[in-house]
Amino acid sequence: MNDEQVPSTPVRPGNGQVQPIRVTVVGFHMSFLNLVGFFIKATLAAIPAALILGLIWAAIAAFFFGGFFGRPWV
């Protein structure tokens, strides 16, 4: 399909299913303060995720390397 043949709304053929259409985003407008707010929220949301991943990694490391207080390798 070239660009002239792409419909502007989803098309329902005879079987009732909606066919996808291609969309190209050429830009969007967002104020600087809204962008700063988004990045602050994303950073704050990443902190608990990093802690959880760190705990999972520590548990896996403890399993493979003899626990947190196990006998050190000699």
Structural class: mainly alpha
Mean pLDDT reading: 80
> What is Rg?
25 Å
The description of the largest β-sheet is: none
**Portion in helices:** 40-55%
Oligomer: single chain
β-sheet strand percentage: under 5%
- Spell out the helices and strands N to C: H
Categorize the overall geometry: elongated
What attributes does this structure have?
1 helix, 74 residues, elongated
Structure, explained:
The chain is an all-alpha fold and 74 residues long. The N and C termini lie far apart (66 Å). It is built from one helix and no strands. The protein has a domain at 31-66. The chain is elongated. The relative contact order is 0.07. The longest helix is centred in the middle third of the chain and has 33 residues, at 32-64.
Short description:
This protein is mainly α. It has one helix at residues 32-64. The longest helix has 33 residues, at 32-64.
Secondary-structure map:
Blueprint lengths: L31 H33 L10
